[in-house]
Amino acid sequence: MGMGYSKWPEDVGIKAIEFIFPMEYVDQTELEEFDGVSAGKYTIGLGQKEMGFCSDLEDINSLCLTALNKLMENNNLKYEDIGRIDVGTETIVDKSKSVKSVLMNLFKDSGNFDVEGLDTTNACYGGTAALFNALAWIESSAWDKKRLAVVIAGDIAVYAKGNARSTGGAGAVAMLIGPNAPIVVERGLRGTYMAHVYDFYKPDLKSEYPIVDGQLSIECYLKALDACYMKYREKTKDPDFRIDKLDAMVFHSPYCKLVQKSSARLLFNDYVLCPDKQKYYPELEHLKEVKLEKTYFDRDIEKLFLTRGQQLFDTMTKKSLLLASRVGNMYTASVYSCLASYLTTTPADELPGKRIGIFSYGSGLASSMYSVKIKGGPHLEKLINGICNITEKLDSRKKVSPREFNDILQKRAETLHDAPFTPSASTDTLFPGTWHLSHIDEKHRRKYARKT
Fold this sequence. Notes:
Largest sheet: 9 strands, mixed
Strand order of the largest sheet: 5-4-6-7-1-8-13-12-11
Radius of gyration: 22 Å
Distance between the termini: 47 Å
Number of strands: 16
Number of helices: 14
Helix content: 25-40%
Structural class: alpha/beta
């Protein structure tokens, strides 16, 4: 290792999690009616129930300020205890100034300005790249063996008017990274797949809305899943590895239905990669020549493995979709919303010893699969206590009509680059303790305040 290290730091991983989402949401059943689409298109077809959204009071800086502030307060952390912050986001408000630099405002009183790390951007994958950076710092000679790292992943996902609008959402997660963690990231078990594609991208800097090729996007997601899983399986060095050797599997969730299909897809991968199909899958003889890359839109195979994998999905993945179904797609925070959901909806005494697979995908494209192991004890108890009120918080939000929701997004789009600018929404629409945009001056300098 060099630099006086005799061994790796022990059990490096996630020590605490803070999850935040907007106080206002729109109901997907009401949105179906308002948009004039067939009943069930968003709720059954996409698997979505509700969608959180932000007014002109919130931007990416305010979301991340709130997540960091709450992580520090709720875990009794001092700002001088932090040596690195990595931010993953694709919600860009400035082409030069990072979100991380804005977060340094919270460090002012502590006098700690020796904080490494910056922003990482590639669609929904930025949060995972940020996490890998923070883990690498803790395991490197740059680490001072004392201070901890924080990873923040957050986004505001909004789409132009039309069907795609129902796949939006907003939220942020802050994770404390260090040794002796209750959620240990397994070392050396990581499969990655990266490629150049235009499945979803945001070339128009005047707009928050992306350009999306829906069909290509699904194909890229599944192709990346296949490739990452294959690499992950190789790294386990277990010739008999199958997906059910994990206790849970969480996915990046653009919408919940794709996650269910992805869970079935991994079962199909196990079949394709099985060296002795005759022995283990005699009833699937008719599929033995099938190639993975020819089946992204094969309805028969999809249906067959969805049916075969229903129980697997119910036990391994379904519980992870609480936030994804009720807040929507949070881009970089999405896969970590699934991890947090799984941890809060599984009885705490059943968590120790569990091994969870994590698949992260970002269009354009970047993807990885890795796994974490859960260690019992007081650290785990503390982490779970920090996120155990998620359902209660979801239930305390304010429902907004689809018409008002569309008006708010319209206003957001119209004033996106205004300077000077003062938000028009009321702070009554924010949870207590939320940071918000208070003013943008004529030089585009943003000022923030906190709702007490």
